[in-house]
Amino acid sequence: MTILLGLTGSIGMGKSTVAAMFRRQGIPIFDSDAAVRRMQGPGGLLLAAIEALHPGVTGAAGVDRAALGAAVMGDKLALHRLEKLIHPQVDRERRRFLRRHRARPLVVADVPLLFEKGFWRRVDLIAVVSAPAWKQKARVLRRPGMTWARLEQIRALQMPDAQKRRRADFVIPTGGSMQDTRAAVRRIIAACMAGGIGG
Known about the structure:
Distance between the termini: 22 Å
Structural class: alpha/beta
Radius of gyration: 17 Å
Mean pLDDT: 91
Strand order of the largest sheet: 2-5-1-6-7
Number of helices: 9
CATH topology: Rossmann fold
Largest sheet: 5 strands, parallel
Number of domains: 1
Shape: globular
Strand content: 5-15%
Number of strands: 7
Order of helices and strands: EHEHHEEHHEEHHHEH
Low-confidence stretches: none
């Protein structure tokens, strides 16, 4: 039986780095953000529908993510409409991915808003990537175009890190060395393969 491990973490916690560590260990990863980027890229499945919702945010290169973000940030109704468009398509891709890998003992679903959007109910185990708040802030504010105000807007949409950690089967620390993080990933893989859970 395949174990589906949900991998999540707030912005700037190092989730992409951790996902890459799972991938290097040979674990299949479904990356929800990558699926969305494909659908919003050149010739993407969702371009016409997004343009209909928010005229002017798409072009030959696909969706202008900054323009789309500005159009929905702070507007709960607009964000809800966009999510109703995107989430069912991502869910279809995820189901196809899981069917392709159904013979594997462990598959990871990388879902940034796993708790916030209810996907936690559809995974077998949950791993939360976590770092100290000061490190999270430093990482995020180094990103191009990121401001403290925008970070606060994003964090307002995400479940607090402490709450995520309490609900996790595993917590993966990214505030220390890469070696410590890699060791945590290997322990989780071993526990899942053995059918056990732990922190």
